[in-house]
Design brief:
The chain is mainly alpha-helical and 361 residues long. The chain has one domain. It is built from 14 helices and 2 strands; from the N terminus they run αααααββααααααααα. Strands 1-2 form a two-stranded antiparallel sheet. The longest helix has 29 residues. The mean pLDDT is 89.
């Protein structure tokens, strides 16, 4: 909206041309979402506390988590609202990619909201049954994947690229593309949700990956940078930088309240939405494998659950003391802040490794 206004005001003052620069608008998007989060966060937390929308802690988990019972949750709504507002303020609202990623984010956020609402307001301990949660995720995931395929404007948007192999470019048929996009969207959504088990553990890696994907989007949308870096040129992808910056800023603003000891938890409404957004953006900029590398913490957490369940069913023995992986280290005696910060460090290293693939091709 403000981008449109600045464009109209150009006839009066040429200085408004600065708003045409993606990098400038990205800085404003991140700053505005951060400021809005810091301003809206305290009253939102008070409201959640007033309505007693508090976290339910499982008694079979680490005993150190029991004091967290009652901490306000569904704080992910703060991330979604601030990301939406900031994106609408600074993005070109004619961008197909921006509207698609917003639709994906809020579709999965709706699933998470329903699950949280049933658990915390209706007091249904099961929340949204797993089969229905996965059903709705699958419906939205397949719909988004199909739209991405059939609205593609250039062949590059439907082509598979591999990092480190600059000559590999394999056009994907509809079935293959939709399958990859589906698993990226639904898989990342659930992976972030599994990781969201400690104060600030999921949101910092998510903000880092979002910022890195924004850099890929900016480079992919610029013909000169795309040609120089030998990455796919995706017309209009640069506008995704605004969304990524807004999401990163909103994540940092949420972290202000979610840092140990947390004043508010994200809940499924935030985790499912953020993961889906990261997965969809990775598909849009054709960097699925790089996104899995940068989101390696999410991948490891998910893999630990899969391995734990498979091992117990096949052998009756557990590989980890508890899954997801962060609980394993807690039960080994690591203090919660130590687990969180060390996972952040690993995430930062993986994000830097992913960014290095821009040049190492």
């Amino acid at each position: 909206m403000l981008y449109w206004l600045a464009h109209r005001l150009l006839v009066w003052y040429s200085g408004f041309n600065v708003f045409s620069y993606l990098t400038f608008r990205a800085i404003l998007a991140m700053g505005s979402s951060l400021v809005i989060s810091l301003l809206v966060g305290p009253p939102m937390i008070k409201r959640l506390s007033r309505y007693q929308i508090g976290q339910v802690v499982r008694d079979d988990g680490p005993q150190t988590h029991l004091p967290k019972a009652g901490t306000p949750t569904m704080g992910g709504t703060l991330i979604l609202v601030t990301t939406l507002v900031s994106t609408l303020m600074w993005a070109k609202l004619t961008s197909r990619q921006v509207w698609l990623v917003l639709a994906a984010t809020f579709a999965f956020g709706l699933i998470g909201f329903l699950d949280d609402y049933l658990k915390l307001v209706v007091r249904n301990a099961r929340g949204l049954p797993a089969r229905w949660k996965y059903f709705f995720q699958s419906v939205f995931g397949l719909a988004i994947a199909a739209v991405l395929y059939y609205t593609a404007t250039v062949p590059a948007e439907r082509t598979l690229y591999l990092p480190f192999i600059k000559t590999f470019a394999e056009p994907l048929p509809a079935a293959a593309f939709i399958t990859i996009a589906y698993f990226m969207t639904v898989g990342m959504s659930n992976a972030v949700n599994l990781t969201d088990g400690l104060d600030g553990l999921a949101i910092m890696p998510a903000a880092l990956v979002s910022a890195a994907l924004g850099i890929f989007a900016y480079a992919s949308g610029n013909a000169v940078f795309a040609r120089y870096l030998e990455i796919p040129m995706i017309p209009g992808a640069g506008e995704l930088l605004i969304f990524c910056s807004a999401l990163s800023g909103a994540g940092l603003g949420f972290l202000w309240f979610n840092a140990y000891p947390a004043q508010v938890f994200m809940g499924d409404v935030g985790a499912l939405a953020i993961g889906a957004a990261l997965g969809v953006i990775a598909v849009m900029v054709r960097q699925e494998l790089v996104a899995l590398l940068m989101g390696g913490v999410f991948v490891l957490e998910t893999a630990s659950v899969i391995l734990q369940v498979a091992s117990f069913k096949l052998t009756g023995r557990r590989i980890f003391r508890m899954a997801p992986l962060h609980h394993h280290f807690e039960l080994k005696g690591w203090a919660e802040p130590k687990v969180i910060v060390r996972f952040w460090i690993i995430s930062l290293i993986l994000v830097l490794a992913g960014l290095a693939t821009l040049k190492l091709r």
